[in-house]
Specification:
By secondary structure, the chain is mostly helical. It is built from 6 helices and 2 strands. Helix 2 runs parallel beside helix 6.
């Protein structure tokens, strides 16, 4: 539940960040539209540039409602996860916030040691221990069982003599029970219990293997997603410079308008992908701790 709550909160912030990015790109593209309109009014370019710029703006603007709907759905889901009615957190989470940033590195230690805290691993260990303990119980039935019994009391013919000397009584003796003629059934029970213990061992090994696989995949995914995010950020930095150069060259009549459109679309796609990847990094960090049971 904690992992699911964290993941949906990250998803909410990612949607909100993508809304802000889309709105920022709308304003950028509106500036380009104004530039194309001015050049058209001056008779320097044809109407096609204005139409293309308008199409670019409206396409980007059309993404905003979809992203806002995703943010609202994530807010409703988050409210349900924390035990509230859908919409209860709308006002509290209305303002866009950043995607939570995990540490640069995940210091998790040795997964083989940490996964022992997972509930499924602990359950498998306890079941295995219980099945082995039952082997001892079944084996004990094959051997004689010696029981010592005893009693201490008082006895008298009259109530007034109960506490006089000589009224005390006691009895002690052994009792031996041995299922000598039932050993076949008992040995069969022992073999069956041994088989159940072997099955518990196999289940334990399967749980351990699955836990290790999940932890290893989560660690690898977290590290590789961080690397991908770094590359996307470097690409976006260059994409912003490309937009500036394209707008300048278009304004000076050194390049066509298609170059401006292509550079703006590439920048918008990269910035949106960065927001998604930032959310993926944090989500994988949450998944890593869930896999390790910490």
């Amino acid at each position: 539940l904690a992992a699911a709550t964290a993941a949906i909160y990250v998803e909410l912030r990612a949607f909100q960040t993508r809304v802000v990015i889309a709105q920022t790109n709308v304003r950028l593209q509106e500036d380009t539209l104004a530039l194309a309109q001015a050049r058209f009014d001056a008779g320097l370019v044809g109407e096609r540039d204005v139409a293309q710029a308008t199409t670019n703006v409206e396409l980007t603007r059309s993404r905003v409602p979809t992203l806002e709907a995703g943010a609202r759905a994530a807010s409703n889901r988050l409210a349900v996860l924390v035990g509230l009615a859908p919409g209860s957190l709308a006002n509290e989470l209305e303002l866009a916030g950043p995607v939570p940033v995990p540490p640069a590195t995940a210091a998790v230690g040795v997964p083989a040691d940490l996964i022992r805290s997972r509930p499924d691993v602990r359950r498998a260990e306890r079941l295995l221990a219980a099945e082995h303990a039952r082997i001892g119980v079944a084996a004990a039935e094959l051997y004689p069982r010696l029981t010592l019994f005893g009693s201490i009391g008082v006895a008298a013919g009259r109530a007034s003599d109960l506490f006089r000397t000589g009224s005390d009584t006691f009895a002690v003796g052994p009792s031996v029970r041995w299922n000598l003629f039932d050993s076949g059934r008992l040995r069969g029970r022992l073999e069956a219990q041994s088989a159940r213990a072997e099955q518990a061992l196999v289940r334990w090994e399967t749980v351990i293997s699955s836990a290790l696989e999940e932890a290893e995949n989560a660690m690898t995914g977290f590290a590789l997603e961080r690397r991908r995010l770094d590359s996307l950020r470097r690409a976006a930095e260059q994409a912003r410079r490309t937009v500036e150069f394209a707008q300048y060259e278009y304004n000076e009549g050194l390049s066509d308008f298609q170059t401006v459109l292509d550079s703006e679309r590439a920048l918008a796609a990269l910035e949106d992908e960065i927001a998604l990847t930032e959310a993926n990094v944090t989500t994988r960090y949450v998944a890593l701790h869930r896999a390790l049971g910490v």
